[in-house]
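User: Working on a comparison across species. This one is Branched-chain amino acid transport system substrate-binding protein from Halobacillus dabanensis. Can you predict its structure so I can line it up against the others?
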Amino acid sequence: MINKYAKVTLLFLSVVFMLGIMAACGEDASSSGGDAEASDGDTVKIGALFDITGGTGDVGTPYADGEKAFFEYLNSQGGIDGVHVDLSGDDYAYDMAKGQRLYQELRDKDKVSAILGWGTADTEALRQQVANDKLPYFSASYSENLKDLDESPYNFLTAATYSDQGRAVLKWISENHEGSNPTLALLYNDTAFGQSPIEDIKEYAAEVGVEVVDEQVIPVTATEAQSQMLNMEEKNPDYAIIQQTWGATATILREAQTLGSDTQFIGLNWATGEGVVEIAGDAAEGMIGVVTHAFPYEDLEGLSEIEEYLESKGESLEDVSQKFIQGWVTAKIMSEGISNAEELNGEGIRKGIEQIKDLDLGGLAAPVSFSEDNHAGTNKVRLAEVKNGQFEVITDYFSYED
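Assistant: Here's the predicted structure for Branched-chain amino acid transport system substrate-binding protein from Halobacillus dabanensis:
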């Protein structure tokens, strides 16, 4: 018979054994750091930096709405092969210091496996941390610098870079301009975003015979730009490329109308969209814009799931803008990478994204492809012109290399 002391000893050893098993399990769960905690097998956590109230909130707000809407829709359809996507994000108001703090919170507190970012300055500043933390990063910045895999091994570009957009515009000008050699002005803001493509545009302009005759720096939040536009008018350029968001672009167009300018204004992607027409009114007539993503009033297969989502909210495609679609598409590409991933952590998702080949987005954007050696999904764009108060697409997808 086992005496009472033996029973106590056996009970003690059993407790120690169970505690040892529990401790071992806990050690296994955390031994790989943030990656192991990023997903519980049924959920994958994605972080996001939004600009809602900052200097680019005019386009940042509908873009953020599109990202959030896509994941809400995706989860309502069963997630990614049954895996629920938990999106954690906040407004960093286009402030680099706030962006840095938010990134660290998403990494350390929320334990995310990938991030949807926003601005050029913060995206470029975070590149080394992103690489060290092994967090795939889709930014709304299309800076050419993000193509450098030595500096940005976990950054991915989901649309043509600003520089590639500018090169495509220059190709179009060189092929369509009538008369003597075309002249060009560059209108941009004094931020990393505004400056990003300028030197590349000037270099390519020299290659294709377009003379850059003027540059004007206009704040991203500008509500007037009379002096800058007067300076530009003295040079009388045939074309002006605008690297701004809707608000400053509308300011430029209104000032140009007041001056009676006959320059052809061409906005890169963040200058293009319904918002600039709403703000500028008839001053936007004739503006040409770079189109990286579809307008909601186009007849495209890819709009059907957006329409289904909006109807579930009592809304329609008339209630959203091109920037909403841009955010939706970015989130959709991320979900494809997650679907390809063998492990739902940063490294696994990176490898999953690199497996994406000619992803058909139903016309919502140019097909994208990635690989271990190339994280730039596409360099193709379309062009559209404002006619009777609405952007109408005037080209198919093309690149400066076509």
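For your comparison, note: Confidence is low (pLDDT under 50) at residues 1-39.

User: Helpful, thanks.
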